[in-house]
């Protein structure tokens, strides 16, 4: 376990990860860093939190953190692990494919927390190799929030792709509740609030270097925006699967029914970008 005195600066980590990416050879049986990074005495920057709330659509000035915000707090520690020379997946082109969040109780924005992050496992995927990163937020030694994020490094593989998932479950498409027109600068605004300044989110020119016709929205912004619109109970488990990129600018439809939600392209046959569910904990 490595104990930190402050969150790592993201810019040098992004630069190091980018420089090392061409030398990485991803495979599911590769070794990976087993260190657990620990950051005690963490306090939330309330101005930065307010900027995050505004860009994601959460109410500002609430007493408690949005359900997705601890991911932002843990992101620099995760980046330190994933930009390390010993981490076998290249940081450039790494795709965030899913997140599962468990919040055990509301988290006061003015509290002091202990943050822990580690790489849990590598696993084969039909498109390459997937890593799972675990983030935990503790208060007085008690885990009050935790997440499991999966990140995919795409490369050639002999695995057979699974059967195509239907655009909507057997119970039918979810009813559209709102349509959102997304501005071209959403990625830049979210990047400024979260610290995640991956070039695929910032500008069409940098996005084209990675095969996208325009900048794409952060997966965690799409999840946060959906959860802000839906609302979450105090103790909750949330799952979001990032199924297709959201191009910026663009128009998307937010659909939800009970515990299920989706973000999809506008129109009846719109492509599903994000699907997920929200389950109240006892």
Which stretches of 5+ consecutive residues score pLDDT under 50? none
Strands of the widest sheet, in order across it, are 1-2-4-5-6-3-8-11-10-9-7
What characterizes the major β-sheet? 11 strands, mixed
- Classify the secondary structure makeup into a structural class: alpha+beta
Radius of gyration: 18 Å
Q: What does this 3D model show about the protein?
A:
This protein has six helices and eleven strands. The protein has 282 residues and is α+β, with helices and mostly antiparallel strands. It has an eleven-stranded mixed β-sheet with strand order 1-2-4-5-6-3-8-11-10-9-7, with helices on one face. Helix 1 packs across helix 3. The two termini are 32 Å apart.
Considering the chains and any ligands shown, give keywords for the structure:
single chain, alpha+beta
Structural topology:
Elements: E1 2-3, H1 10-20, E2 37-43, H2 46-56, H3 69-82, E3 95-103, E4 112-125, E5 128-139, E6 142-154, E7 176-182, H4 186-194, H5 204-208, H6 219-230, E8 236-242, E9 250-257, E10 260-265, E11 272-280
Parallel strand pairs: 1-2
Antiparallel strand pairs: 2-4, 3-6, 3-8, 4-5, 5-6, 7-9, 8-11, 9-10, 10-11
Helix pairs in contact: 1-3, 2-4
């Amino acid at each position: 376990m490595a104990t930190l005195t402050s969150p790592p600066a993201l810019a040098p980590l992004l630069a190091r990860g980018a420089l090392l990416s061409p030398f990485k050879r991803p495979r599911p049986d590769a070794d990976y860093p087993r260190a657990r990074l620990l950051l005690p005495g963490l306090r939330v920057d309330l101005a930065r939190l307010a900027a995050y709330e505004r860009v994601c659509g959460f109410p500002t000035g609430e007493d408690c953190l949005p359900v997705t915000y601890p991911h932002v707090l843990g992101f620099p520690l995760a980046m330190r692990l994933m930009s390390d020379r010993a981490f076998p997946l290249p940081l450039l082109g790494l795709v965030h494919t899913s997140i599962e969040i468990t919040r055990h109780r509301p988290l006061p924005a003015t509290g002091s927390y202990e943050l822990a992050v580690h790489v849990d496992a590598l696993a084969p995927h039909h498109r390459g190799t997937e890593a799972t990163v675990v983030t935990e937020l503790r208060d007085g030694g008690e885990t009050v929030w935790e997440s499991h994020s999966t990140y995919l490094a795409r490369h050639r593989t002999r695995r057979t792709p699974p059967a195509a998932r239907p655009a909507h479950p057997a119970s039918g498409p979810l009813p559209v509740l709102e349509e959102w027109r997304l501005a071209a600068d959403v990625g830049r605004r979210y990047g400024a609030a979260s610290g995640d300044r991956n070039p695929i989110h910032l500008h069409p020119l940098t996005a084209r270097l990675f095969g996208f016709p325009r900048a794409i929205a952060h997966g965690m912004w799409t999840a946060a925006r959906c959860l802000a619109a839906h609302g979450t109970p105090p103790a909750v488990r949330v799952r979001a699967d990032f199924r297709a990129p959201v191009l910026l600018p663009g128009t998307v439809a937010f659909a939800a029914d009970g515990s299920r939600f989706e973000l999809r392209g506008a129109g009846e046959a719109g492509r599903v970008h994000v699907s997920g569910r929200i389950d109240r904990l006892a």
